[in-house]
Amino acid sequence: MDLDWSPADLAFRDEVRGFLDEHLTPELRRAGRLATSVYPDHEASMRWQRILHERGWAAPAWPVQYGGCPWSLTQHYIFDRESTLAGAPGLSPMGIRMVAHAIIAFGTEEQKNYFLPGILTGEVFFCQGYSEPEAGSDLASLTMAAVSDGDDLIVTGSKIWTTHATEANWIFALVRTARLERKQQGITFVLIDMNTPGIQVRPLVMTSGEQVQNQVFFDAVRVPKANVLGRIDDGWTVAKYLLNFERGGGAVGPTLQVMAESLAAQATSQPGPNGGALLDDPAFAAKLADIRIRADVLEILEYRTLSAISRGKDPGPAASALKILGTELSQQLTELTLEAAGPRGRAYQPHAAMPGGPVADFVPPADGYLSGHEWQAVAPLRYFNDRAGSIYAGSNEIQRNIIAKAGLGL
Questions:
Q1: In this protein, which residues make up the domain named Acyl-CoA dehydrogenase/oxidase N-terminal (predicted)?
Q2: CA 94, CA 389: separation in Å to the nearest integer?
């Protein structure tokens, strides 16, 4: 594996940097810098998607005929890496990076023609209806029922931890259409208009105070069978395919490197326990150095995975390893950042951040007063939100089981 970019790759990198320098406004960079989770401020994210769409870069991983880019895998990685380094706000992954790939692979021509252009522009905004109160990591135990009635399915039940359900106008959901021998059978993948009568969204207040997650209730919601993706009772096949896109594909290493560099700069102005700067404290410096080394190692592992894919090889359990390393390193980094924030990191100051959703029961000070710096106010919000990283997209315990089975033959 050659770790040096080719001349063509370097030219592409410079093109991406020029585009980012020109179009990333201070407001958009602020939204990226002050995001409190993987979900940035919704309006900023949609503004950035419109800019990318105008350039033809909103969905580079899609097939070219549907609006994607004819890039190599290396160019995809360079684009993600440079966007991260420049501080661009992320895009909501539910549509562009997740369900769109399932629509392309399993959808009818009518479904592709309707949904894909709208997803690109942001006019069609999806949320994900997978988890239920009694079906989380064991997703195949889901019970939300869909009963056949002529050309429709009548859907009744609820979904939980549904990100941006209040902003979305569509939801892709797994529903139970039959009780068969194996619980993975009898599941159907369906696209549901969120404006259909019988749908109620109830926001959930997270430990950070944000209302990004929701519980969605379906009371005899009528859904056309034309909105089924794939075949009825075979939705598990679609769901497994989609998970390949949910668990990988981004440049996580550079994200962690940027966070670690910022923390190092912040720690130079924070007082340490011995009177000097916090960064000069051996205990703190050792923990930060360990994280930075591991972030560099993670980036090398991403390069290795990229190299394998570019040679037509299945990365296998490497995707699970990257998910474990990335989420657990991020948790360690947000924990260390909270430690560096000191007493001011204990103050609840969400008005200094740009969260991915509204904050419940918080009235910001009329004069905008902030105790400390912006990063100190953001630190506790990121800390609380990041606790979910080792659970979503398949818990890290499940990822370790995949590695044990597929990688070690246990």
A1: 9-123
A2: 16
